Amino acid sequence: MVVTMLEALVAPEKKEDLLREYRGGTDSLPPFIVESFLLQERDTRSWRIVTVWRSSEELEAYRSSVETPEGVRIFRAVGSEPTLTILEVAVHAARPSG
User: Fold this and answer.
1) The model scores a pTM over 0.90
2) Who contacts 42 (Cβ-Cβ below 8 Å, separation ≥6)?
3) Where does residue 97 rank: exposed (0-12), middle (13-18), buried (19+ CB within 10 A)?
4) Per-residue pLDDT tens over the stretch 6-48
5) C-alpha torsion sign, points 68, 71, 75, 78
6) Can you list the positions of beta strands (E) in 1-98?
7) The Cα angle at residue 86 between residues 82 and 88, in degrees rounded to 5
8) Residues linked to residue 85 through DSSP beta bridges, in sequence order
9) Nearest residue to 30 (alpha-carbon basis) of 9, 2, 52
10) I need a labelling partner for 70 at 20 to 30 A (CA). Which of 3, 31, 47, 94 fits?
11) Confidence band of 97 (pLDDT split at 50, 70, 90)
């Protein structure tokens, strides 16, 4: 697994636009994305889109297949330019289902 984190500052008056863009851009996630989160740092203008990918190969294949990745498009739609961090998952823990 690999995790991408896009981070950008978003003007407070653009919050609802960001929420709408994120919901619209993630209403149907492709199978190579495990899950995605839109996060706001408390009491700041700092927002992050954190996405968990099945593999780094699938992330790279996706990135090379699109002109602008969806997360970048979402932030740009509200006038923000995100920075990207890519993290390899070294160990994963989850509560057993059921």
Assistant:
1) yes
2) none
3) exposed
4) 999 999 999 999 999 999 999 999 999 999 999 999 989 999 9
5) positive
6) 2-9, 33-40, 46-53, 83-88
7) 160
8) 5
9) 52
10) 94
11) confident
For residues 74 and 17, is the Cβ–Cβ distance under 8 A? no
Instruction: Tell me if 2 sits within 8 A of 53, measured CB to CB.
Output: yes
pLDDT above 70: percentage of residues in the chain: 100
Record the tokens describing residue 2, joined without a space: 């690999």
* Three-class SS state of 25: helix
pLDDT surpasses 80 at 60: yes
Specify the DSSP element, H or E, that contains 29: none
Q: In the block, which residue shows the tokens 């919901």?
A: 23
Q: How far apart are CA 29 and CA 40, in angstroms?
A: 21
- Ordered by where they begin, the domains of the chain are 2-88 (3.30.70.100)
